[in-house]
Amino acid sequence: MTAVRRASTFVLAAVFWLTACADAGVAAPAAPQPGAAVAGAITKVLLIAEENHEYGQIIGDAEAPYLTRLAAAFGNATRLDAGYPTRCPSLAAYILLTSGTTGGICDDRAPKAHRLTGDNIFHQVLASGREWRNYAETAPGNCALTNSRDARYLVRHVPATYYVADRRDCGRWAVPMGTPTAGALHQDVVAGALPAYGFVTPNACHDMHGAPSCTAHRVASGDRWLQRWLPVIVSGPDYRSGRLVVIITWDEGTSAGNHIPTLVISPATRRIVAAQAFTHCSTLRTTEELLRLPLLGCARTARSMVTAFRL
């Protein structure tokens, strides 16, 4: 069997494993370690941002069985700290992840209060001749700059809305996400047309943050939501060809600490536990390296995750 055929077999095995777990809801053996045929082929990054939980509240927790299985089967960063003060709420994390600095932000105010003009990964991707998307679940429209009435769409979790120089592109590319069977993300996945950089913002019922209109347990609801979405994503042409990596991270932990889970899912990443100290700056650096972009802010000095996770 050729190296390319072996790589294809491994990728299909991973797709089958993820789908089977989603359908059956039970643990399954991890997919085999793929060979080097797909290594170095990544040209697209899809980042999914969950909310407000520390590592031990997710990995190994009874309410997060799917995430726990993903951590064991793919890439698990066991020592990733958000990298900014615990006293600062969510928004600082989203700006740090996409620009390499918090911009001095330590509140959750809407974009009209924080008109950011610095460089950011959305602008970088556009300047390189490629496209980005900020897929936001239940967003009331493109580039919505205020929260929805039911507080399920929270603009502070949609970083593309804060960069004023990129508002024109925000109006095109910060879009309502849709569902696993219809809508913007589903269409891009099945068509093999995911952008170079995609930022996925679950709504407050699925990001483990919670909203008054949500009734399910926060962690369990987010875990089930990912269990519905991940098999769709890894079944798409972008992942199956080896050109897509999916990173699942959390914005922050709790007021006690910012040690957060971060999972790396790619055809070349199998059963890897990375114990190196990483931060959100590492996530940004890794993304920029994979997309061959200049390093922004703290990404310049952060530790990369590329080698650790065989990307």
The CATH architecture can be given as: 3-Layer(aba) Sandwich
What CATH calls the topology is Alkaline Phosphatase, subunit A
Helical percentage: 25-40%
Based on helices, strands and strand pairing, what is the structural class? Answer: alpha/beta
Strand order of the largest sheet: 5-4-6-1-7-9-2-10
Overall structural domain count:
1
Strand content: 5-15%
List how many beta strands DSSP finds: 11
Amino- and carboxy-terminal Cα gap: 23 Å
Major beta sheet summary? 8 strands, mixed
Number of helices: 9
Radius of gyration: 18 Å
**How do the helices and strands follow one another from N- to C-terminus?**
HEHEEHHEHEHEHHEEEEEH
Tertiary shape: globular
Mean pLDDT: 89
Name the CATH homologous superfamily.
Alkaline Phosphatase, subunit A
Top-tier CATH class: Alpha Beta
What low-confidence regions span 5 or more consecutive residues with pLDDT below 50? 1-12, 19-40
Short summary:
The chain has 311 residues and is of the alpha/beta class.
What does this structure look like?
With 311 residues, the protein is an alpha/beta fold. Helices cover 31% and strands 14% of the residues. The protein is built from 9 helices and 11 strands. The strands form 2 sheets. Strands 5-4-6-1-7-9-2-10 form an 8-stranded mixed beta sheet, with helices on both faces. Strands 8-3-11 form a 3-stranded mixed beta sheet. Helix 3 runs parallel beside helix 9 (280-290). The protein starts with a helix and ends in a 21-residue tail after the last helix.
